[in-house]
Amino acid sequence: MATYAKKTFKSILNKKKFIDSWFWDRYSINPYNGCVFGCLYCDARSGHYHMPEDFENNIVIKEDVGPMLDRRLSRARTLEPDVVGLGGVTDCYQPAESKYGNSRACLEVLAKHHYPVHLATKSTLVLRDADILNEIGVQTWCTVSFTITTLDDEISRLVDNRAPPPRRRLETLSALKRACPDIRTGVLVIPLIPVLSDDEPALDALVSASREAGADYVLFSAGMSLRDRQAHYFLSHLEASNSEAYHQYKELYGFSDAADYDGLNAPPASYATPKQQLMLRLCAHYDLPYRIPRFIPRDWRAINYRVAERLLNHAYLRQANGQYWQNFYWAGQNIQNLREPIDEVSARNELHSIRNVGGKIAEEVLQMLDQYRSQTDSRSTPGIG
Ligand code: SF4
């Protein structure tokens, strides 16, 4: 049984040094601490996020989040409207939201200040906020992702039993899409759960059902981390419930017994790459994008965002295929963080002064800039790729 406690925090909005290259958020807000859904694989359990180990049973209600966020955005001199990721280490539509309304309060302030939003949830409660989500979609950009790692109810009972069943999440996606014509909705197969839900028929059924439900994209990752406390929690439950799968995890993650759990991390590329390539094939087969089209601001940043999007998409594809991706990733992030339009840097022949933008990547950036110019010359709406 979860306990709920109210607590005041000094700040509510976190600004990231580098954007999230999957969901495109520059800022993050966690309206609650802890998550009553308590999924077996949740990496919020790892020490990395400084949550209490039983974070599913101790939910902290952050006080005064709406006025606090309003003050922060009203006074901000150094903040520019950009994507805010709601949730992340908490589900912002867990049951507490129906009573406390912190997520709704944040969305209303973000709409007031014209900030775009991405949120990921497993909850049906998100439908309650269809009005404000669509309003944000009309103003700027709004994307809602539903995390679904399996369609199998038995496996779901093991890995995310306290959240609504997977089919209910797909129905919620469809209903939200009908209610909000101006937002994007999609499915996150994150993480793809080794052994339990990673064979081709299961993933085919999941991507096919996503398509049928009207998803605009399917994002995936086969690199399920198992770190410190998260590894102990996941593996001890798995050992007790499915000893055959537990033995397969031993081989995959390379451990002998519980004494080794602290040294684990992600499965090897020899496992992850073929699974990711399978997901790429399934997305192609069902004609579903594996990336979310990003928010493009209507100011001088637009050209940088478009070029960065291309490079970061490329890095994602290379990573999925097990190729070296880091140079493309950092070139994209460094262009993203420029404080002037990249075409002005290029006009001064100074592209090489941007870290990781040299050689082949600089040539590709020049081609993108040429495309961008020819498209903006030939039509009034700018855009490449
Ligand atoms: S819903 Fe998300 S944040 Fe909540 S426990 Fe599950 S994985 Fe973690």
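^ iron/sulfur cluster complex. The domain at 3-225+266-285 is CATH 3.20.20.70 (TIM Barrel). The longest strand covers residues 142-147.
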